[in-house]
Amino acid sequence: MTIGEIAGRFGLATHVLRHWESVGLLTPDRAVAGRRRYRSADLYRVATILRAKEAGLSLEQIRELVTSAVPARRREILLRHRVDLVARIDALQDSLRFIDGGLECEHEDFTVCPHYQAMVRERIGPQAAPHVPALQWEVRAEGSGAAG
What pLDDT is recorded for position 123? Predict the structure, then answer.
């Protein structure tokens, strides 16, 4: 396959494949006049790179993953990334709970909700005093001429 054919098959620009080659992710054969020729093994390599990128691995991690001849090293790379991924998923789930809490709150203004204020105090720490932000926003907005 030519660089254009493999790029088209995966919906990539040809410069992406050239970049991946320059950083050691791909090693296509060279035909007459130095043109790249991709084999079926290269299809699997490109698909692997794309899946790894979708999983959040960096190009350096992917290079280590696909070039290592040591299975234990490949597993170590995946395990290390899994730990990072689980932490990011936990943070995103916490963010989603925050958003859902605001959207599902029965108060007209969720910022005056005791549950919301408790969540914010928890983020600040145990020394946080009760707070009624809606009143401060109104005062600030009135004093600055801005709408709140």
Answer: 80
